[in-house]
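Encode chain A's predicted structure.
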Amino acid sequence: MADIWLMRHGIYEGHRPGYHAPPEAALTPEGRDQIHRSLPLPDGITAIVTSPIPRAHQTAETVAHLTGLPIVAASDLLAEWRAPHMVLGHTPSTYPLAYRTWRERRLTHPSLSCEDGESLTDLHTRARLCAAFLHRTAQEHGPLLAVSHTLLLGVLTHLTEGPTAFLTAAKAPWRFAERRPFTPGCSATTPAFRPPAP
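Encoded structure for chain A:
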């Protein structure tokens, strides 16, 4: 089976702890520098797939430009957890009451969504489909780099936890431009690539 590596995008405009970034948030110059410092890629990678959300897609384009590798797919399966519109651009101190109430109930009712947001069950289902997509794409194109977002990557690498993997992902976010090998059932103990400190 071909190797698959997962990578989080670089830092984006407006980032701060607990911030729900709007989809259009773009990479910053620092984010592009993080990507430069994350290279070289592991040996053998032959193709890139990415989330279509700009900060991830721009990361993939930067890697492609620097390495000459093709981007063979941009898939919504790799998109970040879809937060409800009511919290986009907010941090915990300004979360609306409806969202705070949902957060208190989400583990006991993982199929419950908050307005137009994605439920924990829906995110876990998408992550399972994403894992299958990555394996199929790697069979077709060879060793693969997949560029995505911290919550989706966290759930993807903790699929065996079910919908509660969302909490694991939220408590142990990936660093910007961090890479890890993807293997079925891999966990927080999986050795990680960490880009050099700035």
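Residues 185-198 have pLDDT under 50 and may be disordered.
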